[in-house]
Amino acid sequence: MSIPAFLIVSIIKSAVVIGLLLLAVAYSVWLERKVAGHIQNRWGPTRVGPFGLLQPIADGAKNFFKEDLIQPHVYKPLFIAAPVIALTLAITSISVVPFGNSLYIPETHIGHWLTIPEIDTPLQITDLNIGLLIILGITSMGVYGIALAGWASNNKYSLLGGLRAGAQMISYEVSLGLSLIPVLIKSESFSLRAIVESQRHLHWNVFYVPLGTVAFFTYLISAYAETNRTPFDLPEAESELVAGYHTEYSSMKFAMFFMAEYANMVTVACLATLLFFGGWMGPVFGPRILQMVLPIIWFCLKVFFFMFLYVWVRWTLPRFRYDQLMAFSWKFLLPVAVANIVVTSLIEALRS
Amino acid sequence: MLHLILFLFFGVICAAGAINLLAQSHPINSALSLIVVMASLAGEYLLLGAEFVAAVQVIVYAGAIMVLFVFVIMLLNAGTEEHTRGSRVAILLGVPGVLIGAVLVAWTLLYRSDISSVKIGSMYGGPYLIAQLLFRHFLLPFEITSVLILVAIMGAVVLASRPDAVAKRHHAEAPKAMPELVGTGKEH
């Protein structure tokens, strides 16, 4: 592929992926409200469009036209930068996630003068051989958005929320990273594409009993804590901290924190799918166009399952107490993850 | 060409972050500048071809260690620093040190052109090679370092454990109260 073609394809891919991510973010808010409604025996959003499907657009418009307050007591530069940092990092991490096998468009002629050359490109913005590490790095930087928001608001509740977020995310990052190592030992690569390729023919890592299963559950629990979701949403515990780190935020800045949270959820769901549930692997049949589309559908279905699980867990489990949260991370998840690494590497060493 | 532009880009950001780190009077701004320095260094490593080192630089330094820095600054609610006229030690040792360093670099660049230069992308730094070095060739130093870090952690735990608990262990009289840890600096 020539350099201009590469640039054009990359820009189109980035735009499409970011657009889809933001769409997914908007509709996961709708999913959350709808499922929450049905779990609590009510309807959820119904008024805007069929099944309330246009609700995210109404929400977005509302947030956009709300007054954007910047209180006089905040530290202005960081107060403004914090939601930007949170959202930027949350969106960036999608760049290494592969959505499917590859996209093939044969040479096409539009009219007499325009010819689109043959395109054969992986369904992913970029395939790095340290893809997983990039995602971990971006997640570890994600703390700053929340912690700085809490600090810059210059408000006791916000500060406490920011501090909680910092402590919680550092603690759970350790078990999150360690829970992934058995997968890496098994697939021998950091590239997400290679990890998916190593799970062909239903050799999904989650079925690799008991090691992969244990790794999956430690990953899932740490990921819930890493994205500040119930039962680990202590940084924004409304019964103690008003709204935690985003107490002072309004309008689009507030919405940016929420978009960041949901974008992180999508990334975590994608990662769970890729690492443990075989990514886009699934039954593929039929004509060429169907063979190209089916893997994407399998991938989306798996991601949807994890997003649904997020909501389900939120409306099922109560919140942890703060000391329980920390003890659970350091005294239970971390030892389990380390033991899992030791056993996995022993088994793999004996096998080879 | 693109590599050179990116290299200069990250280099300028890195230097600007380092200068800003010294110029800022509020600790949290200094800490954030240090994060910028770390992240742009990761960019330089990436350009040199040391991918794994770049990723670890972001995860460990920019991600974990600097979060703890920011965390402590937030926890202590440190206020704006006071400007002093500078310490005498810094002037006596620092200025000659900078001069010697600058002269050394200039001399090397001007007269020792025979020293082979590192080409962009010529370093190896893939996970496989790093693992070979760490766990095969330098296994003993690696293990010794880990024991050293373990000792440091245990030291930190002993120091951080409650004063009255330590005192009880040594059959000495317990102090009346925890020492005042929280600073009373004005916010911002």
Description:
The complex is a heterodimer of chains A (352) and B (188). Chain A is mainly α. Chain A has twelve helices and four strands, in the order H-H-H-E-E-E-E-H-H-H-H-H-H-H-H-H. Chain A has one domain. Chain A binds chain B through residues 75, 78, 128-130, 133-134, 136-138, 140-141, 143-144, 147-148, 150-151, 154, 159, 162-163, 166-167, 169-170, 173, 177, 190, and chain B through 28, 32, 35, 39, 51-52, 54-56, 58-59, 62-64, 67-68, 70-71, 74-75, 77, 126-127, 187-188.
Largest protein interface?
A-B, 29 and 25 residues
What is the CATH level 1 assignment of the largest domain in chain B? Answer: Mainly Alpha
Helix proportion range of chain A: 55-70%
State the CATH superfamily name of the largest domain in chain B.
Answer: NADH-ubiquinone/plastoquinone oxidoreductase chain 6, subunit NuoJ
**And the CATH topology of the largest domain in chain B?**
Four Helix Bundle (Hemerythrin (Met), subunit A)
Net shape of chain B: globular
Unreliable parts of chain B = 177-188
Global morphology of chain A = globular
Compute the average pLDDT of chain A: 84
Number of strands of chain A: 4
- Classify the secondary structure makeup of chain A into a structural class: mainly alpha
Q: Please tally the β strands of chain B and state the result.
A: 0
Strand content of chain A: under 5%
- Mean pLDDT of chain B, as a whole number? 79
CATH architecture of the largest domain in chain B: Up-down Bundle
What assembly state would you assign to the polypeptide chains in this entry? heterodimer
- Cα-based radius of gyration of chain B, to the nearest Å: 22 Å
